[in-house]
């Protein structure tokens, strides 16, 4: 399972636990309150670990792209025919500015990163 899906599932479980906790608080059911407090704490801990892993992987990918010797903005014609461009330039990585990695790199336009000039 991807990290993104796992984070979403944990957020859903956390939301359910918080709702059940509020119901238990209104009933003044101490054993149930303690159980959900413990479960919420565990879910928060796991969620923080996954978010850290996701940011670590994103930072690792960002460093790999920045270490590539050549990068430039892609023209509209190149963007329209990316298949041809990828066949012509082996190892090219195209990054759109609205993706996570594009935002991390603070890109303004679609950019190509490659090990050799293209």
From TrEMBL:
UniProt superkingdom: Bacteria
Keywords associated with the record: Coiled coil
Ranges in a coiled coil: 7-53
Protein's UniProt keywords contain Coiled coil: yes
Name the UniProt record assigns to this protein: YibL family ribosome-associated protein
Higher taxonomy: Bacteria, Pseudomonadati, Pseudomonadota, Gammaproteobacteria, Vibrionales
